[in-house]
Amino acid sequence: MFADDILILTADSAVYRFSESTKIPLDKVSLWAENHRLKINPLKSVYTVFTKKLTRRPQILFQQSNIKFSSEIKCLGIVIDNKLSRIPHLNYLKEKSLKLQNKLIRFCRATWDVKPEVLAGIPPLDLSIKFHQEKFRLIKLKTDILINNELLIANNVHVPPPWVPPWRGRRMFWNIEQSNVNMNNESNFNYYTDGSKIDGRTGCGIALFRGEEEIKTLTIRLNNDSSVFMAEACAIKIALLEAQSLNDSTIPVHIFTDSMSVLKSLEAVNDRFQIITDIKTVSENLNCSFHWEKAHVGTHGNERADILAKEATYKYDVDVFLGTPRSLINLKIRNQILNSWQFRWINSRESRFTFGLFPDVDLKRCFGDFFINQILTGHGCFPSHQGRFFGKNCNCSVILMKVLSHTIFMDVLFMRILGGVIFLQILLLWVFWILSRVVIQEKV
User: Fold this and answer.
1) How many CA atoms lie within 13 A of 102 on its CB side?
2) Residue 30 near residue 66 (C-beta atoms within 8 A)
3) How far is CA 163 from CA 192, 262, 270, in A?
4) Which backbone phi and psi does 219 adopt, to 5 degrees?
5) Fewest beta carbons less than 10 Å away: which of 32, 74, 178, 193?
6) pLDDT digit string, tens, across residues 174-184
7) Where do the TM regions start and end (predicted)?
8) pLDDT tens per residue across span 91-137
């Protein structure tokens, strides 16, 4: 059943009565389709009867055509049979899972142990599945997990705000630096905010200025899992709450921050963080404006907020707990995958030649060339590989025959081939240089 299908359910005391009881609903459907300029194909329409024992099938007409009888109907991905045995649905799931399994078999065909993942920079599939399963248990099932000997509490994970349609979203616009602001006007409340993270400790600082005079400062220590982005946003939120405590919505409030990412989040319609939603909610009842201030250019207010944010990281007690962002969870899971992958690569008995070239796993590594991978893995037209798998002989000694580096750097035949290739490349470059010079002279 798809979005353009129509499902009609009817019940009667006897099977033969369905021919009459379905006539009126089908006529209404036909009239509705005609009014909306739609056509219903009777040849694709089917019906089924749910009964213990079906002695004879009813004749159901639609637009002067008989509707075919079917022992099963697929509705919203569920196969319903007329005996309600659920066996056709299980067979459907079995066939669907077998197709998925066959695709996985193609991906997981016979390969050279752990080398392909190391050369391609792709973590093993089983490790990725294992740790993404842990992430699912933490975020969706609200179960505490252990990652890198660190306990992650499910209740501390940051929960994004509920989704809001774009037409109901709110956008907060911002200005560049001190545009449209009279910094000498003492009636303005200018809040400079900043966030900092030092040695795994997070804090934010706020400095309030009226004119050129510093009126108030705040240092807030956040939980260690908080990011710099959350610290910057928390500083803006607390500054707005301080302005709200003045109980005067007419006072001009100006927020200065050097975090472009927070200002871009305020400008966006959809909020990914609850703290951004809170900032928009608090600023609705204030006469406030947001300004981006370039960092570390000598602005007194910005430098003062930066010093306060760094001082906040040295406080012992946590003032505000913002939870663990999902970005940090993804980072910890990624590091755990890399550590497990590295442990498997070090302790593997195979691929020691490739291990000598690449002792560390790396996600940025990507070798996909067929001929280069023969050299990197030792599986190619080399005496060591040919003698091991095909019993071919080499003119070199038995000890040197087993070493691929000897084939590359010391084998006479290989060096002749390599020298011929290099000579051919030099010759082609020389010819290209001569032709380019001729073309340039003709143009001149």
Assistant:
1) 6
2) no
3) 31, 19, 7
4) -125, 125
5) 32
6) 888 777 777 77
7) 413-435
8) 999 999 999 888 877 766 555 566 788 888 889 888 899 988 999 99
Which among 273, 271, 269, 268 has a CA at the least distance from the CA of 232? 273
Would you state the structure tokens that stand for residue 339, as one six-digit string?
């550590």
What pLDDT digit, counting tens, does each position of 364-399 carry? 888 877 878 777 777 777 666 666 666 666 655 544
Pair of tokens at residue 237? 């939120």
Alpha-carbon distance 184 to 187, whole Å?
Answer: 9
Give residues with Cβ within 8 angstroms of 403, minimum separation 6. Answer: 384
Q: Report whether 337 contacts 131 (CB < 8 A).
A: yes
H runs (alpha helix) in 39-181 = 87-107, 115-120, 125-139
Distance CA 98, CA 93 (A): 8
Residue in 252, 193, 194, 187 with CA at minimum distance from that of residue 213: 187
Which residues does 190 contact at the CB level (< 8 Å), separation at least 6? 181, 183, 208, 209, 210, 254, 256, 301
Instruction: Compute the distance between CA of residue 150 and CA of residue 418 in angstroms, rounded to an integer.
Output: 53
